[in-house]
Amino acid sequence: MIGQEFRDRTGKLRGWREQTSGRIDGRDRTGYLVGWYDPRRDETRDRTGRLVGTGDVLTALIWSTI
């Protein structure tokens, strides 16, 4: 289920955020997982599990994959 969509100026879908079992996943336009935000730890991690930053920087991670 798509929670929040991200579209470019022309209206093309570029990615989205979705709530899943205690974390928020970020996906690119094809549905590929690019990372997730864990609100309990207040951390954002990339698809490999590497720490990207503290706080919710998932939106920046999604846009950086374009």
Describe the structure.
It is a single chain. The chain has 66 residues and is mostly beta strands. The chain is 11% helix and 48% strand. The chain contains 1 helix and 6 strands, in the order ββββββα. The protein has a 6-stranded antiparallel beta sheet, covered by helices on one side. Strand 2 and strand 3 form a beta hairpin. The protein is globular.
In short, what is this structure?
With about 70 residues, the protein is mainly beta.
Write the topology of this structure.
Layout lengths: L3 E4 L5 E8 L2 E6 L4 E6 L4 E4 L4 E4 L3 H7 L2
Antiparallel strand pairs: 1-2, 2-3, 3-4, 4-5, 5-6
What overall form do the CA principal axes indicate? globular
What composes the largest sheet?
6 strands, antiparallel
The protein's oligomeric status is single chain
Helix and strand composition category: mainly beta
Proportion of beta-strand residues: over 45%
Q: Averaging pLDDT over every residue, what do you get? A: 92
Keywords:
single chain; 66 residues; mainly beta; 6-stranded antiparallel beta sheet; globular
